[in-house]
Amino acid sequence: MVKVKIPATTANMGPGFDTLGMALNLYNEIEITEDANVVNSEDNLVYKSMVKAFKACEYKYGNYKIEFTKCDVPMSRGLGSSATCIVGGIMAANAIMGNKLTEEAIINLATEMEGHPDNVVPAIVGGMAVSIYDGEKVVYSKVNVPDNLRFVVIIPDFEVSTSAARKVLPKDYSRNDCVFNVSRAAMLVTALNNGEIDKIRTAFQDKIHEPYRKTLIKNIDEVFLKAKELGSVGEFISGSGSTLIAVIHKDNEKFIIGMKKAFNELQIGWAIKELKTDLVGAKILIES
After folding, report:
1. Angle between helices 220-229 and 255-266 (to 10 degrees)
2. pLDDT along the chain (288 residues), means of 10
3. Does domain 2-143+278-287 have CATH number 3.40.1440.60?
4. Which class in CATH covers the domain with range 149-275?
5. How far apart, in whole angstroms, are the C-alpha atoms of residue 233 and residue 198?
């Protein structure tokens, strides 16, 4: 039996489309036990990910009972729920095989399944990471996130599917928009590494995906404005949405109360959680 714990992730983080991602201290836990009486479905993303890892190592595998013993990462909300399944499945399979896969191999297999590395890399290695393709392999670099920052996830009571969020994006961008995003992404990484909190709001600006995806998230402007009024140092859409994230100082004790009051005034039943960066990434809890 293998049990694996995988963190939620936020991706894009403003200007870092398909590139920037960060693990958060919100988790799914998956318990996997070999069971000949179980008939596994290829539609199960955890099992599908396990099979990919087994086949990569030419490992003879059987049937497995797959249970979520903790399921705190909401589905289709832009917090990396699919990445938890993919990473959890591959890491569990690797444990079953006696750890035949390197971290690099795990990252590349997970990215092949997810389609881009911004969620799976931080889910595996923890912290915030810049992840890019170099040919057919993924290269990543960690970003230092100041420990006095907290990430408030604001979770609407509706889903935004990744496919729908991709469909609203334009096929082409102007040179000015590309330069705008490159400059902000570079500034965001540098500002975080240097602890220059005052530059983060400017660095979170984006022209590649947020102007288009915000049309899918009702009340986003009012929520972002209220977050700024309550002392947020920056806001962005998490992944493809619908979750929004506000970045605050850890000693901002009035933020959550103020946002809940705003939700009541707007008559929206959204959930809100204050999280911090998970620095560990996915890990095996039990292996027997």
Report:
1. 150
2. 97 96 98 90 92 96 94 92 97 96 97 94 98 91 97 92 87 96 98 96 97 93 97 96 96 96 94 97 87
3. no
4. alpha beta
5. 7
